[in-house]
Each structure stands twice: as C-alpha cells, then as structure tokens.
Amino acid sequence: MNWWCAAQGRPWDWTWQPYPGVWLFVLLVLAGWIVANARWGTDPIAREAQGLGRRHIALFLSGVLTLWVAADWPVGALGAGYLVSVHTVQYLLFALITPPLLIAGTPQSVLRRVLGSRSVWAAARVLTRPLPAFVVFNVVMLGTHLPVVVDTLGATQLGSFVRDMAWLGSGIVFWWPVLAPLPELGSLSYPARILYLVLNVFIPTVPASFLTFSDYPIYALYELAPRVGGISATTDQQIAGLTMKIVGGMIIFVTASVLFFKWHHREGDADSGALAIPATTPRL
Predict the structure, then answer these.
(1) What interhelical angle do 84-92 and 54-71 show, nearest 10?
(2) In 10 A of CB 234, how many CB atoms?
C-alpha cells in the first residue's frame, strides 16, 4: 500500500490508486482547524469580533481542497513520478495557492493560540519578517528544484512528503507578510507589500528558464519515467518552465494589483475624510 504519492516506475493507465496517507493528512488539517475553532474561536479580550464566520469557513475549506488536489491522485501521482509539468502545478498549489487560503481562513484568536508558546512566537516573529520570509521561500523553491534533490526526494514516499511539506511551510512563511493576519507580528504598508511581491517574481525565473530553454531533460526521474499521453520529456519540461513563469507570475501580479487598488481606495477615503471639514457658522 502506498500512503503518499511517489515515483513508481509503472506505465500510467489512469487506474485510480488510493493514498491513505494523503487522506489522513488532509483530515488531520481539517480536524485540527475544527477543534481549534471550537476551543479558541472567540477571544474575550480581543478588540473586535474574531470568531469563526462564513468567510473563514469558505476560505479554509478552499485551502483544504487545493491541498487535497495537489497531494492526491491523479495530480499527486503524475507530479511525483511522471510529468514535471504536473510537478510544477503541484508546487504552485502547495506554495502559492493553498497557504494564503489557510491563513485567511483561520481567525485571529486561533492563530494567537497556535503561536501561543514563547518559543513558537519568537520563531514566528523572525520568520514572518519580509527579509527572512523572502530568503526562506526562495531557498526552498530553488533547493527543491535542483536535479539532485528532485531525483532523490521523488524516488521515495518519505522524500515526496518532505518536499511537499517544505513547499507548504515556505508558502505560509511567504504569504504571512502580505496578509499580516496578526498586527502584533508586524504589518507592512501597501506599497511595501507590493514591492515584496514583485521582488519575489525574479528568482523563480532561474529554474523556469532552465526548464524552458534546456536542450535536454535535466531531471533523470522524469526523463526515465514512462511517457504519458505521448508527451516527450523535453516538451514536458518546457511546459513546466512556462507554467512556473507565467502562472506563478500571474498569481503574484494579480495579488499585487489587488493590493494596489486597496491602497488607492484607502488613500482616496483618507483624502475625502480630510476634505470633509464641517462648516461652522460665524458669530455675528
């Protein structure tokens, strides 16, 4: 029984395969969130209502769904040992789509309790600053796309699990300065958040370029894998590079655009408030 998706070396035939480890992990994430909200969903000393709402539920469930899709059959199996293009889709789901949904779907009161211990809080204060978050995210991204790392981790279930969790963890660290869910851990201005996102576009260009413009497959794992749908290893690799560059860049730039319009709207409201000075009746 395979508990996590990893390279199998068998021809791909679209026969469904169960991965109990993936189901257990997803259920643990969901159950942990439900229990945490039942215990800590409201904070009596909070300055505003921070309990569980429909928005939290929708966002967190969306995050759990994308996590499940990324890890389970068929995406997880195809990405683990057949197509590097699907492997790239996995990376985008784990690192760029799932984390902000999980963060935004968790109430502040629950986040404070999860980070409640002194050591965890101290680590969070360091890792969620823009520079450490930038370094952690990009080091994990570059490291997990090195040929020796891809070929080594993808060959075993434990290695695949470690890689997937590294993507998820670095994604949470990456998105934290953008979402700033807890003001006491720091909050960037809108221009600073936009700059932070834009700077994170350039480094992923390095692996994307290697994948797109290399004349030969750079990963032995995917070069030697049974072909799926007649796609050659080189074509598959080029699709992977374009996916990382275009789709990953779109996610970043769409988020930056949303932040820009929020900033513009906020500045507009501030200007309107400054101009709305109540008139006073002069005394005669």
Answers:
(1) 160
(2) 14
pTM of the model: 0.90
270 CB neighbour count, 10 Å cutoff:
10
Q: What is the mean pLDDT of each run of 10 residues along the chain (284 residues)?
A: 90 94 97 92 52 87 98 97 97 98 94 90 93 96 96 96 98 96 90 94 91 94 95 96 95 94 74 54 48
Closest by CA to 83, choosing from 223, 242, 208, is 223
CA distance readout (Å), 274 to 99, 190, 271, 277 = 38, 20, 5, 7
Tokens of 223: 């070069």
What is the rounded distance in angstroms from the CA atom of residue 244 to the CA atom of residue 261?
Answer: 25
The distance of Cα 129 from the centroid of its chain, to the nearest Å, equals 17
